[in-house]
Design a protein that fits this description.
Length: 356
Amino acid sequence: MSDHALVRIETTSGDLRRALTGLVDLMHEAGADFHPGLRIVETDGQLSAWADGDDPWLMRIPHSTLVPVEGVTWADEPPLRVVATPDHLTPQQVEVLEACTAVMAAAGTWERFCTTHPRATITDADAISLIRSLHPPFSPATSAAAMLRTRTIKLRLNDQQPTSYLMPMLDLVNHHPDAPAYPHDGDFLCIGTWRAAPNGECFVSYGSTRDALGIALAYGYVETAITRANALPGEYAMPGGASLRLLRASALDFTHEPDVLTIIGAAWDAADPRVEQQTLIEPIERHLQERGAPAIQARHQARVLSRRVLKDDVTRLGGAQQALPGIDGCQLVVRAVTFQRDALLSMKRDALLSMT
């Protein structure tokens, strides 16, 4: 344990304590503000943020210290080390980059990624193909750049194109689906003191559109507090000869076809039935009406098709649940798939039973 003047650091690792102390000092000099009761807690190499007291802000970090990671060259194997930096980084950003790298190296972040994250642990070709059928962005990787995608955020600052930034200090705060996202306060990126339990760990939301499977494949853990389930990619016949094509929210490039309704990011949410209505039922209903179907008929057909998609997703997730357990490195994905399938069954059990 270390009683730092600004932040309390709780770790048994001397290297990690020194690295965190250096980062906190650097950020304070750059104008960052910290909750007076902020504690950084290390548990088996995993870092989390806690705070004692009711101050509304956990930390406020200047935009000038966020580090765009594109163009940074990393060592080919652990421990994490910066080999070269692009010319567009400011001297302050380079200093922050080195300090963040020191923290991740001391915590063994890359090593843990290589031994626990699905992108690094799954090498079986059949498993990769199956997972991609459920989540097309999935791709195996063990590089430092792949690991850093779990530590960065894509932001649009100063009207520039969205860019992936390394977030000093902010990346110590873990995700919770009910927490607020990162708000901006002038030239600062901020995190409030949102807790899932009184006096507990502080959380932030990494985004509200990922489901349990998406979080597992992006960040390498299973989130069981989530209520959202995204529709799996697929194609379905619609009344009147048209087709419904469902794509994940990350699918930005696709070809528009006159007889194909393409929906990106369709989902269900146990906590908010409007999600299904707005992302799946209403677009289908509008499309059918545009093709001449009466309003009442279009509404009924849209609901039937939504239930068909849900039933198909349950079946596909069940297939993955059966196929993946015997394959090395798939244990975490199996847990995420099982949770998501059970959530869908729970959300729509009556609808599923009515179709049997």
